[in-house]
From TrEMBL:
Keyword Transmembrane: no
Cleaved signal peptide residues: 1-18
Any Gene Ontology biological process: carbohydrate metabolic process
Organism encoding this protein: Bacteroides faecichinchillae
Keywords tagged on the record: Glycosidase, Hydrolase, Signal
Name this protein carries in UniProt: Alpha-D-xyloside xylohydrolase
Keyword Cell membrane listed: no
Highest taxon of source: Bacteria
CDD domains attached to this UniProt entry: GH31_N, GH31_NET37
Domain Glycoside hydrolase family 31 TIM barrel: 227-540
PROSITE patterns with a match to the protein in the record: PROKAR_LIPOPROTEIN
Family: Belongs to the glycosyl hydrolase 31 family.
An example molecular function term from Gene Ontology annotations: carbohydrate binding
């Protein structure tokens, strides 16, 4: 009987423990306007612990204070055998955005989102190159779940059994179609967040009062936005994957002879002796004198970017040393470095430093995401069950691998006090301060534009791609979008000749140029020159990103939160404070453009548009679908063939719709981190009484800008 009583006591005690799953989380303000809720045992490796950096506290203190639409006490956390469940209140009239680089959805209310790293999106589920367990609300707050585990967000899509009776009454109507039967109802009053496997969790509640304030606070919590080198804002061209030394030089000469600006030439896998996996050794067969080639390219004004991925080939010089510091599964017969260990980071960065010292300005870090988890046949990457020396498993490593990878490479440049501008295919949270741009092999143009908008919610930079096209409209609309993105790049990795000469892949390979090749080449040159004109303006937008956390490329609703029409517009976006892009993505030369409040001007024609209205607007192949907000002083530079440390930008300023206006430009060396030590000027351009004047905070040898002219546009 005593044994039976003891058994019953243990059994009922176990039931009691199992029932007491809900924990009252601790609360702590970790930075101005950021409240951390914590319950249970926190994982060793979380995004904030790994990538959070030092919050820009002084800048965060300058942001407006705001009250949440709910009390932090209303955020419930349950720790169960399955993992953690978080419940966040959701009002009837709020919309949600975020979850990283989302490619198929914009407003997320009513969705079941799983922001999981993957090399391809799938039906809006949230699979993406850059997943983030972070969303923002039109009510002026953000919710960030600080985990590297696969997480599911039920964004008002589901209700617990205490659902309201009114909804139950509405379901009495008999559905007669499958569409009506299964339609999304999005009427839940909670966001339920499911984190399987977690023994505890941290939830950051980030205050507004508006979405832009939330995003600024998040970026400043990450250490502030990045500031790329000035040359990184020029034009980049990636040559064909099997290019050889002579063909690279021919491309370099082509751009200079045709007077088409180009700052960076990117080499694809063929530069190495082995690429899948990677040897990181120059191929003497294709590049017999690669150092001589690099010197030639430098003399012609080019930076060089090299493609690679992190999987270490058996022939690589670092293979043996990396063995103890890699995961237990191979990828393409290559080792997977555990970049969480200092040994793996040192082995990898020490070797790559030799490439950087030879003159490599940056790397394209490919396939650091995951093979497509929506296909059973896609198996190239390491499995979720993989184990790494640091103790982390494959699931969590997938979510952070791209960020760890770019940090490892970026550390080389930072130690050399040099700014790089990397390409990478996977990212996550708290990466705002890294000089790196995401890209993808997906190729839906409309989704590219939407991804530009979505990337801004989580401190990410996104580069749409252009290579082949099915028509002239398709090609030039893609090129226009690229010109108006964080990195202006043509990725011609499978094209023998420039795509504006022939955008059909097969004909390009055979050297069959378009009848309009010369004309289209001139159009492409014009568009790239327009990008060069915008460099001072874009550079200043990035400086605001660095100082204040304002995304340089962002959806319109951030600037106009009261305009409810903008909640659904993801095919237009702001560039800095004064420019709005409305890319074309259909097979015609016009599109409908919605203008927010105020007066706007066509960048190409100076035509005026009244705000809160739609217009059908035509844009030619050699124009940009770009619009200027009234009150903007726009500094346009005389185009240069490339940007170097000696480049001086001759500015022609345009003042739109006002007699008085001003703008400020950061004037620094454009390549180092010395600006963080105060080695810079602020140049003020001020319009008043019919003229524009240029002033500096201090005089000195550092002069990147000079005023050559101006005009007032009314």
């Amino acid at each position: 009987m005593r044994k039976l009583r003891l058994y019953l006591l243990l059994f009922t005690g176990g039931l009691l423990t199992a029932c007491q799953t809900e924990q009252l989380p601790t609360q702590q303000e970790i930075a101005p306007g950021v409240i951390k809720l914590q319950a249970g045992e926190i994982d060793t490796y979380t995004p904030y612990a790994l990538f959070g950096g030092k919050p820009a506290l002084e800048a965060m203190k300058q942001l407006p204070t705001a009250e949440l639409p709910f009390s932090p006490d209303e955020v419930r956390i349950q720790v169960k055998d399955r993992g953690c469940m978080v419940e966040v209140p959701l009002a009837d009239d709020e919309q949600l955005y975020g979850f990283g680089l989302q490619i198929e959805t914009f407003g997320q209310r009513g969705m079941r989102k799983r922001p999981i790293v993957n090399d391809n999106p799938l039906n809006g589920l949230g699979y993406t190159h850059a997943p983030q367990t972070f969303y923002v609300s039109t009510k002026g707050y953000g919710i960030l779940v600080n985990t590297a585990r696969y997480t599911t967000f039920l964004c008002g899509s589901n209700q617990k059994k205490q659902q309201n009776l009114q909804d139950a009454e509405g379901r009495k109507k008999i559905a007669t179609t499958t569409e009506d039967l299964y339609k999304n109802r999005s009427n839940g009053n909670k966001v339920y967040i499911d984190i399987p496997g977690a023994k505890g969790i941290e939830v950051f509640v980030i205050t507004g009062p508006e979405i832009l304030d939330v995003v600024k606070r998040y970026n400043l919590l990450s250490g502030g936005g990045c500031l790329p080198p000035m040359w990184g804002l020029g034009f980049k061209y990636r040559v064909k994957g099997d290019a050889v030394q002579d063909s690279v030089i021919r491309f370099a000469d082509y751009f200079r002879e045709k007077q088409i600006p180009c700052d960076v030439l990117g080499l694809e896998p063929g530069w190495q002796t082995a690429a899948y996996s990677c040897s990181y050794i120059w191929s003497e067969e294709r590049f017999p004198k690669h150092k001589e080639m690099l010197d030639q390219l430098k003399q012609k004004g080019y930076k060089v970017n090299l493609w690679e991925h992190a999987y270490v080939h058996p022939s690589s010089p670092i293979r043996k040393d990396m063995e103890p510091y890699s995961g237990d599964f191979l990828v393409w017969n290559g080792l997977v470095p555990d970049f969480l260990t200092p040994e793996a980071r040192k082995i990898f960065s020490d070797y790559h430093r030799t490439l950087v010292e030879e003159g490599i300005s940056g790397f394209k870090l490919d396939e650091c995401d995951n093979s497509n988890i929506s296909y059973a046949s896609a198996t190239w990457c390491f499995p979720d069950a993989a184990q790494f020396p640091s103790g982390i498993d494959g699931e969590q490593m997938h979510q952070i691998f791209g960020s760890l990878y770019v940090n490892t490479i970026d550390s080389i440049y930072r130690e050399m006090n040099t700014r790089a501008y990397q390409d990478y295919r996977s990212s996550g949270m708290f990466m705002s301060s890294r000089n790196a741009v995401l890209y993808s092999d997906t190729y839906d143009h409309k989704e590219y534009i939407q991804a530009l908008c979505n990337s801004a919610f989580g401190g990410l930079l996104w580069c749409p791609e252009v290579r082949e096209a099915h028509s002239a409209e398709d090609f030039f609309h893609r090129l226009q979008t690229v010109i108006l993105s964080p990195q202006a790049m043509v990725n011609a990795w499978y094209l023998q000749y420039a795509p504006w000469l022939q955008f059909d892949r097969g004909k390009n390979e055979r050297g069959e140029f378009l009848p309009e090749a010369q004309e289209y080449e001139a159009y492409a040159c014009t568009l790239i020159n327009l990008r060069m004109q915008l460099i001072p303006y874009i550079y200043n937008a990035f400086y605001a990103y660095y100082k204040e956390g304002i995304p340089p490329f962002r959806p319109l609703l951030m600037d106009y939160p009261k305009d409810k029409r903008l909640r659904d517009i993801s095919n237009q976006y702001m560039i800095g404070d004064g420019l709005m892009a409305a890319p074309l993505y259909e097979n015609k030369k016009s599109r409908t453009v919605y203008f927010p409040e105020g007066t706007w001007y066509n960048f190409n024609t100076n035509e005026k548009y009244e705000g809160n209205k739609e217009y059908e607007i035509n844009t030619e192949f050699d124009q940009l679908p770009l619009y200027v907000r009234q009150g903007t002083l726009l500094p346009l530079s005389e185009p240069v063939p490339y940007v170097d440390p000696q480049t001086v930008f001759n500015l022609h300023c345009k003042v739109y719709g006002t007699p008085t206006a001003s703008c400020q430009l950061l004037e620094d060396d454009g390549i180092s981190y010395n600006f963080k030590k105060g080695e810079y000027n602020i140049v003020t351009l001020e319009a008043d009484k019919g003229e524009v004047k240029l002033k500096r905070t201090k005089e000195g040898d550092l002069k990147r800008y000079q005023l050559s002219g101006y005009e007032f546009i009314n």
